[in-house]
Amino acid sequence: MQRGDPVAFGPYWETVRNECTVDIKGDEWMSYLCDTNNLCWYMVPQMRDAILRLHNVVGNVVTKDKFLVLGTGSSQLYQALLYALSPSESSHHPINVVAAAPYYSEYKDATDILQSRLFKWTGDAALYDKDEPYIEVVTSPNNPDGTLRVPVVNSKVDGKIIYDLAYYWPQYTPITYELDHDVMLFTFSKCTGHAGSRIGWAIVKDIEVAKKMIKFIQLNSIGVSRESQIRAAKIIGVICDGYQNLKSIESDRLFFYHSKRLMKERWEKFKGAIEQSKVFTLTKYPTSYCHFNKDFSEQYPAFAWLKCVEGIEDGESYLKKLKIRTRGGERFGVDAKHVRVSMIGTDDEFIELCTRLSNAKRE
């Protein structure tokens, strides 16, 4: 339960596996180049059309008058954005990169691993008090705790904001607004569950930022796999076709309906297990109106964020004794009493998780 591997949606895709089949001939997609008339020259037209169509169906973000930048997962795009939003190479001071704690555990490592002179990880955005340029990463819904986030830095200097919207999809949270930010980051893995395809995209307002991102990706990987793009475009097309043909197919055949129901059922079982153990407390989420599903709904995050009751100081170590592998709070910039548990593993893993948590007792 340590990783965020989204294999929970596998059974759904097994039911529509034939509709998702793609056929790529041996002589197709051989060139480095793809669509040279497009700013993002390595993105196949089918991928671009599929992304725009998906956001139009869901209604979660504004794509008009924006530029699409494709990446090998959102991890590559994150680093491309740090490069694109940083001051010029002539600057002697790297720009500060911050995120409000608890923040995604990989931000720090992904920022620092390059040992760049352009940017550096500075920690918790809520504690940032420097009058220096900064980049704030806002993940909403947040990983690890599922809360909805806004920028929190209070500085005299105007900062750059990266909105990581990996979980702003109907199975995890109500679609309350059509978001319209300068930089918005998405990943195919958390939308559909196809993490192995390594597809992510950024929706960017400023063409100069988009150009710098594309330059980074060109030097880093010379674009994105065409085969992955073709497969991703096909899968997204199956999702969108379902909603356009809503009157002719059963609701359980619709991906977001199916996956939201799955997440809801898991959260109900998980809350029961936590209540029975009385060892942890859970984050509480508000009920909001979802403009996509046309109903009021709670959030069903991809991760559960647990806090130990009094007497237990290290949640990760406690759960390790129960043979449950998790990520402790210190990885996310908070204390060890907190711990993150994945809700998107296999059915067997989830059932076993609930069983072990139900039997957990206070030490």
UniProtKB/TrEMBL annotation:
Residues 2-359 form the Alliinase C-terminal domain. Signal peptide: none annotated. Keywords: Pyridoxal phosphate. GO terms for molecular function: carbon-sulfur lyase activity; transaminase activity. One of its GO terms (biological process) is amino acid metabolic process. It comes from the Eukaryota. Transmembrane segments: none annotated. Pfam families: Alliinase_C. InterPro entries: Alliinase_C, Ethylene_sulfur-biosynth, PyrdxlP-dep_Trfase, PyrdxlP-dep_Trfase_major, PyrdxlP-dep_Trfase_small. Homodimer. Belongs to the alliinase family. This is Alliinase C-terminal domain-containing protein. It comes from Trifolium subterraneum.
